[in-house]
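Why do we bother with a discrete structure alphabet at all? Because it lets us treat a fold like text: something you can write down, compare, and reason about line by line. To make this less abstract, here is a complete entry for Protein NO VEIN C-terminal domain-containing protein. Read it the way you would read a sentence in a foreign language you are learning: slowly, and without expecting to understand everything at once.
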Amino acid sequence: MPIWDDDRELDANFTIEPETNGLSLVFDSCGGGYNKDYNAGLELLLVRLGANTATLTRAEIDTKKTEHLSEQARFIPLRRGYPVDLNNIDAKQLRRDLGASMKDVGSERETGDGNRQKRVRLYLEFDGGSWHPAFLETRLRGRVDYGHLARDSSRGSLPAIEDRDAPIQGLKRASAGRSSDAARNAAIENRAMELAASHYSARGWYVRDVSELRVQGKRVGYDLACTTEPQPEDPNNYEDPELAVEVKGTSTAGDAVIVTHNEVDQARRLGDRAELFVVANIQYKDGEASGGEVLLTRKKWVPEDPERLVPTQYTLTLT
């Protein structure tokens, strides 16, 4: 996968692969006219990894010639040692340090071949857990095609992350906190949807607004379908996504939100594929909603304690 530096595509290719602990980034070597932007690309990746809370725990030469060598023989030593907090480094200097060390690594001879631009594998860990490899690749690449935010014929399109203040075309139903003002409630919910769409698209998901989608006559029971590949928009071919997000927006501090029976049932069914995204303290003035704080994102959000789900409506049988 190539890297973008603003509007310029660098000739510098990498992949992200899963490891037992964390992920690894494999950065291709420079040679024969390939990966010509090796230095600039590696520096840019180090900067972006740091912005994504990465720590470099180990680096190795990763070529066909080194496959049979021991782990220690492939190891790239650093004078500063490991681990390296990539959010607190001089990326150019770290790239130079790696190059200076790798020239003598990866050969059965006492000294290496002098190449400072070899194919390397960087072992990474992240604060607060890890990323899905495909999502981190998209984030590190530096250019996300926000055109993949799916369009629903009845709802229009969700805004790109650069357009956080643009309204969503169409109105989302009320859900968090009772309001007698339907327009106010809808504006607050739209604001929450904007922030949620930006949050998940920035993490590499293909995001589709399915809050009004019906499958076999029934609502799907969540608001955003987040997938690693675009989904067909035909409801007859709809499948549950890798991540199903229920979005709640409120002008309060968010101590409680309203969820429907269907939303609870679908979250229970989907298990760790269901996520709750709550935006609190959204401001409403002169017909427009703005601001808001992401209060939480939580998987498996249906509580085991039934007392935390309080019924707010009853059905009265008249006969």
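What the structure line is telling us, in plain words: Confidence is low (pLDDT under 50) at residues 144-180. The two ends are 66 Å apart (CA to CA).
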